[in-house]
Amino acid sequence: MVEHTENTATKVNLTTEKLAEIEGHPLIVKRFQAYEKYGKVIVPFKDELLTPFQLKVFSTVMAIPPGKTITYGQIAKILKTSPRAVGQALKRNPFPIIIPCHRVISSKNIGGFSAGTSIKKLLLNFETNHFTQR
Fold first, then answer.
1. Domain-located, residue 44
2. Taking the model in full, what pTM does it have?
């Protein structure tokens, strides 16, 4: 489900529904459907809802291409912070898939995800199979 005001997303809640069945503003739903084709979702959102640190973390995460992953520690090194701080920022990501935090993993395992690790694995497998095989 996508929460929104007019054409601006305020929060995205992932479920096991197909992306094509997500409820919300038709423009936003159309852009989610594009994820299945391009691996990227572009939805306008209010960045004033985020802290400056979150914006830095989320900008870094948005640069990760579909089918690729990066660790919390690698992002921490780029931003000169701790992996825990990166994880806490991503834990508060109100826009999963738009800000593809599922592409951030732990150095030891897959790491967490707001919609659950089974959805994270599903997204990573989809992207790996769909976008790196071209």
1. no
2. 0.71
Distance CA 100, CA 106 (A): 15
101, 105, 123, 124: which one is catalytic?
101
Same domain, 77 and 27: no
Q: Is 101 marked active-site? A: yes
Question: Per the domain annotation, does 45 fall within a domain?
Answer: no
Are residues 86 and 72 in contact, defined by beta-carbon separation less than 8 angstroms? yes
Residue 11: give the domain boundaries.
2-38
Contact 103, 121 (CB under 8 A): no
Task: Please check whether residues 12 and 69 belong to one and the same domain.
Answer: no
pLDDT by position in tens, the chain (length 134) = 555 555 554 555 555 444 444 455 565 566 666 666 666 666 556 667 788 999 899 989 989 998 899 999 999 999 999 999 999 999 988 778 778 999 999 999 999 888 888 888 888 888 888 777 55
